[in-house]
Write a structure and sequence with these properties.
- The structure holds 2 protein chains of 2 kinds.
- Chain A is an all-alpha fold.
- Chain A is built from 13 helices and 2 strands, in the order H-H-H-E-E-H-H-H-H-H-H-H-H-H-H.
- Chain A has a two-stranded antiparallel ribbon with strand order 1-2.
- The two termini of chain A are 23 Å apart.
- The relative contact order of chain A is 0.13.
- Chain B is mostly helical.
- In chain B, helix 1 crosses helix 12, helix 3 crosses helix 9 and helix 9 packs antiparallel against helix 12.
- Classes of the chains: A mainly alpha, B mainly alpha.
- At the A-B interface, helix 1, helix 2, helix 4, helix 5 and helix 6 of A face helix 1, helix 3, helix 4, helix 5 and helix 6 of B.
Chain lengths: 335, 308
């Protein structure tokens, strides 16, 4: 609007002819520019996710038609007999995600407390950088390192100890049954937790930093100790931020492929303990996709893929909503 | 009276001790995180350096089981795949990002598009591979390295779009208004003013995006696949570092494992270097950024709260 009046001042000189031309050309370029940019924005925001969903749905249609929703509860995965059930993979994904988040949450909060409250000023960027560097290491490296270094270590020292001491306990003992092979849910979830710590710690740290100093100072003024301030003021105050980070980490953990492929063992059975090999959606995809020799086999793998896609999409929608709520609560308009 | 005071003092001491315990645990948590970084990186350095050899870069893979050989095909393939992916990803990403920031600021619809894009950043990368397999590899009938580039580009586009959007939003509105007052069109303002003002930030986003896709393996497994021969035709299957590391690590030969270590070290160094460069260009940029821009909005809020 403004520009129209600025350029379009009618002057009764020969120049006006040229000015009109410039204006017309400018408008044309503007339209082209705007449409082409807008197309790619719409491509990323609508076309791509919707097309992704429909392509996956089309590819998995054969399997959806054959097994229906029973696929989700089917426990048999037998490519030879052409019976496919997704439960072992879905269960595996949920199990290692749950365990990884369980391990990573307290550690991430601890790291954030250390960074925001305890570390001397010069040390803060070092810790922050080091923890965040964990996110920059490619996941195949976690997988390879885990396979060559961590698995033998765990199989030799950690698991025999755990099995020896805990497998006889009543009620929870069965969790620690098994053979100490290192290729199992235990190792996988530990490595996975290291991979998601940077994400959770990053969100928790940012949230902690957002707490207005006056809120903390009031608590100190009442004689609270540092831990009490964290526990009763800072953490409740930033709960939705921490939860947002947690859900984000869940999304990442579920989609993680390479590290898990090396460590989980690709065994399409529901593990009965921490020390049994298992499979996840991503492991099944990575290992079997290029081997799938029948249409139904491939289609069932696509069925797993679409389940993963839908779950992770909605998990991230929740994460996004939580962060948006936090933004609203602090009434900060994004610039 | 005496007893009551004692009790109160005891309570205070108890609270202080509890506080100490938990703060110590926090410190241990930080040490735990750093410990993992050092454990992984030191193993990588020790083993990687031991097996790095010039022939790794100059020779091609030997047939399976024959000792020696190098990974030239994988290095070159990786560069080609990443380069083509970067061109596609950066172009589309920057286009969409400009639209989000410059044309859609007040439009709820465009903001919704932006939020969906933000969510798409975290789509599991293996799903992208499966997608490209369906739309490109299956119709063509064989694995194709261009497919790997497309899968990586699809991962990169949302990352770049969101970073560009955020960087453009940092450009003060006054600069735009000044240009408007001179009678400039929006496209002129964008190309001559805001993009120039935000170019360093956008460059950082591009570097982080490259860092992100360089380390990806899963989307390449079903698209560019692998190739034991030196290949530069992007319509053929092509070896890449990450897929080669995957294959060599799960393979049975010791010299495969050694080459996998060496290749991993080079790969990790590349990715870390890109991340650190980005961090140096803009202090405060986070290494987690290319994986989850959602996080970034928080650090942005923090920045602006401080300024208030």
């Amino acid at each position: 609007m403004e520009r129209d009046s600025a350029i379009g001042v009618e002057v009764s000189l020969p120049v006006s002819q040229r000015a009109k031309e410039i204006k017309r050309n400018g408008k044309l370029v503007e339209t082209i520019f705007r449409t082409s940019l807008g197309f790619w924005a719409i491509f990323l925001g609508i076309i791509f996710p919707v097309a992704a969903f429909f392509i996956l749905a089309k590819e998995s249609w054969l399997s959806i038609k054959r097994f229906g929703f029973g696929f989700i509860t089917g426990t048999v995965w037998d490519p030879v007999a052409l019976i496919f059930g997704g439960l072992p993979a879905i269960y595996g994904t949920l199990l290692i995600t749950f365990l990884a988040v369980l391990i990573a949450t307290p550690i991430s909060i601890g790291i954030s407390i250390f960074i925001t409250e305890l570390a001397p000023k010069w040390f803060k960027p070092i810790v922050t950088g080091a923890v965040e560097l964990l996110a920059a290491i490619p996941s195949i490296i976690y997988g390879m390192w885990g396979f060559f270094v961590f698995v033998p270590f765990v199989a030799k020292y950690v698991e025999p100890f755990l099995i020896g001491n805990f497998s006889h306990l009543p009620i929870i003992g069965f969790v620690f049954n098994g053979i100490p092979s290192g290729i199992d849910a235990f190792t996988t979830s530990i490595v996975l937790s290291v991979m998601i710590i940077p994400f959770m710690a990053s969100v928790a740290k940012d949230s902690f930093n957002m707490v207005p100093p006056i809120v903390k100072e009031s608590a100190y003024g009442l004689g609270a100790t540092k831990w009490e301030v964290m526990r009763r003021v800072v953490i409740p105050y930033t709960a939705s931020g921490i939860a947002g980070g947690l859900i984000l980490a869940i999304g990442r953990a579920m989609g993680e492929t390479m590290a898990v492929t090396f460590l989980a063992g690709n065994n399409p059975q529901i593990p009965k303990s921490l020390f049994e090999p298992l499979t996840t959606i991503t492991v099944a995809l990575a290992n079997q996709f290029t081997e799938a020799d029948t249409d139904l086999y491939l289609s069932s793998l696509y069925y797993l893929a679409i389940i993963l896609f839908v779950i992770s999409f909605f998990v991230l929608v929740i994460a996004k909503l939580m962060v948006l709520r936090l933004e609203k609560r602090w009434k900060v308009k994004q610039i | 009276m005496e007893g009551k005071a004692d009790m109160r003092r005891n309570v205070i001491i108890k609270r202080k001790i509890i506080s100490r315990i938990f703060l110590t645990i926090s410190t241990l948590a930080a040490i735990y995180g750093i410990f993992w970084l050092f454990w992984i990186l030191s193993d990588l350095f020790i083993n990687g350096f031991r097996y790095i050899h010039p022939s790794l870069l100059t020779e091609d893979m030997n047939p399976a089981g024959v000792e020696g050989g190098g990974l030239r095909a994988a290095f070159v393939g990786h560069l080609i795949i990443t380069f083509i992916a970067t061109i596609m990803g950066v172009t589309v990403g920057i286009f969409a990002g400009i639209f989000f920031a410059e044309y859609g600021r007040d439009s709820r619809f465009v903001q919704a598009l932006r939020n969906v894009t933000d969510i798409m950043v975290s789509t599991p990368s293996i799903v992208m591979g499966a997608l490209v397999y369906a739309i490109l590899v299956k119709p063509v009938g064989h694995f194709i390295s261009l497919g790997g580039s497309i899968a990586l580009a699809l991962i990169m586009m949302p990352v770049i779009a969101i970073t560009t959007d955020e960087m453009l939003k940092l450009v003060p509105g006054m600069m735009r208004e000044a240009a408007y007052a001179l009678g400039a069109y929006r496209w002129q303002i964008i190309t001559k003013v805001t993009l120039r003002a935000a170019k360093v930030g956008i460059l950082t986003g591009v570097i982080l995006g490259i860092a992100r896709i360089t380390g990806e393996t899963a989307p390449l497994l079903f698209t560019s696949f692998n190739n034991n021969f030196f290949e530069t035709n992007i319509l053929k299957p092509m070896a890449s570092l990450t897929v080669t590391v995957f294959q060599y690590t799960s393979g049975p030969y010791d010299y495969w494992h050694e080459q996998a270590w060496a290749a991993s070290l080079i790969l990790t160094m590349g990715v870390l270097l890109l991340s650190i460069i980005a961090k140096i260009i803009i202090s405060g940029v986070s290494f987690t950024a290319p994986f989850a821009p959602i996080l970034r909005s928080l650090s942005f809020i923090r920045k602006f709260r401080r300024e208030e």
